[in-house]
Write a structure and sequence with these properties.
Blueprint lengths: L4 H8 L6 H11 L11 H25 L44 H21 L7
Helix pairs in contact: 2-3
């Protein structure tokens, strides 16, 4: 019944199963209980419930597990990886050079000159700690 679960479900079409004719069909197909006797209505119904439970658990486990990964040892001998074109290099934006000689001179007012001088003194003071002078031994 596990093997034919989907066909039986489609055939039932959401209706209750009629076990008497199904038992007759099972007997002609050679289905039997553990004692080798043809299934009774109750026995066929129990087998069907077990088959439904088994199929639903197996499908739930398969969905939970996600897609199966094919192990390299199970790949066919003729399998080859797909050919992928190398990406084209992206043109990098060109930044202006660090050459300051091409920059126009800017006239600074007194406040800007004082601020710039103050910043330069602070940087010189910080550089003492970042790059201490080498000791003469």
């Amino acid at each position: 019944m596990v093997k034919h679960h989907d066909a039986l479900t489609v055939k039932a079409d959401g209706n209750r199963m009629r076990w008497t004719p199904l038992c007759a069909t099972f007997a002609t197909l050679g289905f039997a209980d553990t004692a080798g006797k043809p299934h009774t209505k109750r026995g066929a119904r129990e087998v069907w419930l077990q088959a439904r439970s088994y199929v639903s658990k197996r499908r739930a486990a398969r969905e939970k597990a996600g897609p199966s990964k094919t192990q390299p040892s199970r790949l066919p001998v003729t399998w080859r990886p797909p050919v992928v074109e190398a990406p084209r290099p992206v043109e990098q934006p060109r930044y202006p050079s660090a050459d300051r000689s091409k920059e126009p001179e800017v006239e600074l007012n007194d406040t800007a000159r004082e601020t710039l001088a103050s910043l330069q003194r602070q940087l010189d003071h910080s550089d003492r700690f970042l790059f201490p002078p080498k000791r003469k031994d």
